[in-house]
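Appendix C: a fully annotated inverse folding record. The material below is reproduced so that readers can follow the format used throughout the book. The structure is listed first as tokens, followed by the designed sequence.
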């Protein structure tokens, strides 16, 4: 028997890779669309001119940082909810 020349990431081997390939080769278009929708729910794709990409990224970074800071400043609730 010939040794497998491929090197796999931890947790994968030739059998597992073949199972994954089989899964996607046998997936219907409807199943693929459902999987894509499930993975990307909560996100939106927007087409913008390339020169706006970096300014938009900076706005997103500022927004996320402000949310993190607001979360850190929020006092811990001592009230017990029933």
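Designed amino acids, in order:
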């Amino acid at each position: 028997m010939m040794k497998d020349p491929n090197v796999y990431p931890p947790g994968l081997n030739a059998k597992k890779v073949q199972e994954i390939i089989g899964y996607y080769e046998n997936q219907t278009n409807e199943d693929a669309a459902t999987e894509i929708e499930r993975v990307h729910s909560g996100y939106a794709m927007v087409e913008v001119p390339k020169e706006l990409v970096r300014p938009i990224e900076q706005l997103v970074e500022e927004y996320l940082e402000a949310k993190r800071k607001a979360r850190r400043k929020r006092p811990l609730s001592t009230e017990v909810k029933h």
